[in-house]
Amino acid sequence: MTAELVRGQNHPLPDTRLELRVSAGHPVVAGATLGDERGLVAGAEWIAHPGAPVRPGVEVPAAPAAEHRVAVDLAALPETVHRLSLLLALPPGAGGPARFGTAAAPFVTVADPTGAAVATYTITGLDRESAVVALELYRRQGAWKVRAVGQGYEGGLAELLADQVASAAAELAAGRLDAPAAASVPSPPPLVPETAPADSASSTTTISYAHPSRRPAARPAAPAPGPDTAGTGAVPSPPAGAAVPPQESRPAPVAGDATGWTMDERLYNQVWGMFEDLARSVAAYRSARDFADHRLDRAVDQVLADPSTRVGGAGDAARAAARATHEELMGRAQEVLDRDLAQLAAESEVVEPALPVAYARWDNPAWHAYRAPEEPPMAVRLGDLHLPERGDLRIPFLVRLPLERGLWVDSGPGRTSAAGLLDETELRRLALDSAVAHTARLLAAHPAGALTVHVLDPAGGGAAAFAPLVETGVLAAPPARGAAGVTAVLAQLTERVDLLQMAVRGDASEDLPPGFDPARQLLVVHDFPHGFDDRAVTRLRYLADEGPSVGVHLLMVADRADASAYGPVLDPLWRSLLRLTPVPDDHLADPWVGHAWTYEPPTVPPGSAVLWQVLGQVAEARRRNHG
Amino acid sequence: MTVNMTKGQAISLEKQGGGSLTQVRMGLGWQAAPRRGLFGSRTREIDLDASAVLFAEKQPVDVVFFRHLVSDDGSVRHTGDNLVGGVGQGGDDEAILVDLQRVPVHIDQIVFTVNSFTGQTFQEVQNAFCRIVDETNGQELARYTLDGGGQYTAQIMAKVHRVGSGWQMTALGNPANGRTFQDLMPAILPHL
């Protein structure tokens, strides 16, 4: 049974002789450091790298390559070694990618002597980093374990080593690393550049990806480097308190810590677990608050009702006592809520970066490594959810695939202040942009060619917003224009639903016409009801009702008021759709307690080309599939 | 070591060797009494339901029963309705899990009740018990046997209540009548 590790997760090792296989898809340099029980590397002789590939118990390849096999014999390591870290770095100037964010995510396998995989780890979430601690093998109470680390460094190996090597030895290591590497490798990767920062720690610690257990925030608390380490270019060694990895000393949350057959399912379940826990913790708090308020009211009423206490000191004292009890209960309730929220926030911090693209925010670096999946994920993220008790604790709003109901991005004036501040045109533009982003995500979540998207844009008003879909070539056909276009697309999809329903009922799926597109279909409707006649409206309602069960899905961008002429006949349509908004809006209720959650649509970072890039990949995968 | 509780007896819910309990399970088990005579094999099925009512200063705040399996705050969970009993032959037929650390601060008592949903009296039930188990290690802390089945259709079994910073369990064993917990409210209130 192979364990699929996520960042921070550990796994026992069955054997002391192991092979670490690296598969990066592009040349990388592999190295290893041997650390003591505090994780510190004593000096250059404890580093295996292409210039000195053999160290006691470990041998690394002598040249950069896309595939590596690193042989490890844990039993042969010196007694003082408690940790072996596997490092990967991009060789600069070799024509390959300069940072991991633009390359395929490296994949590491830990194999036993028979070659069977014990654990695997895909190093996702890297962006500007050019060196990374892939994983570490560590000794804990006599037994060896592997932990997925995935700690990247923007400053490359220099920064990585500075983080690991005991400060006093850093200069030594830097000096020795350069020379042998240059002697043995034709185009030597400068493991430690000569310009290694020489003065302050602050300039070297811009680690862009904060591992929760290695939060850079802990660094300012580190003691200032002593005189012996000043000027060596080393980051001060971690403070004494950080010597033991926090994961071991207190149960830190781990991404993928839920049940499921696959990592996808485990993360999905974990996100829903966090959603439920947040709903319930807040329910406990609100229940206590309501009770406390109610009790205070009652006590004050009682004081007022009793003639003996209505005036004078006794009444004041009784009121003060009631307030004190109120304060005391609220204090305890707040304390419990803070405890729960802190725990969930810590979990969110590890889960969010570990999410696969379908569940990730658009600013997640995982998107840079996007490739069309082999299988659709369980769900897609349609936005974020939060409660007023803690606005910055965002729960990914994951909706199962295939979609059980259509989506409706409401472009009408909402009830919330956020919508009220925007004018109508702006709101419609945002709604359309957000629908395009949802469409892009749905396309990206499906394997190549497994989702066909049709767009209805009767008046052509959405041309600018639909450009990413049109120009990358991910649509089946250009957006349908005019009443004739609307009718044609709706007729085609209605016929499809009819055919599939007959096939399902008659158990005759082989009777479908030759060349029948087996892909799921998504119909994006803009400008409703413009260009729709009564027949088209009937067909649309039919698709909304019958489509989802046979893989025909609906995404409406509409203001309900525009269709008010149809009267209540359309009410069932609106009710059947999952309403999303282009601006934050508190219209979604959780299934457990029924709190009103604020939904926030996913936003593409301003100026980011991620949507275009991902859609380009989708189109590319589709062409490869056809070719 | 299990304590066999008697009516009205209270035990403190603390771990042996100090430390407070974090998760307890209130388990309920029963069997339908065999009938004598002709067609004796036609044992009537009896549907007993366990419920838990959460109180804050004698005000009911939330109820966990077969139609609302988890309290809103998530601290009390019912494992699901068992319609016939006797499944475990001594094991729990219905169970309610209480995460004591998660019980909201204002909740000071949780009362456990059993009702006969199908209307048979406890005369037709045998080997009925309720027990409290430390869910973290499966150790049984206390067991209370419902002996002397009488002409009643419900029992107020026990309550778990705050004492200082910990919790205490008191066996109540009070007979009552009713189909669901709502009917029992008047009978519960004197025990708070």
Automatic annotation (TrEMBL), chain B:
It comes from the Bacteria. This is Export associated protein. Residues 1-179 form the TerD domain. Signal peptide: none annotated. Gene3D superfamilies: sav2460 like domains (2.60.60.30).
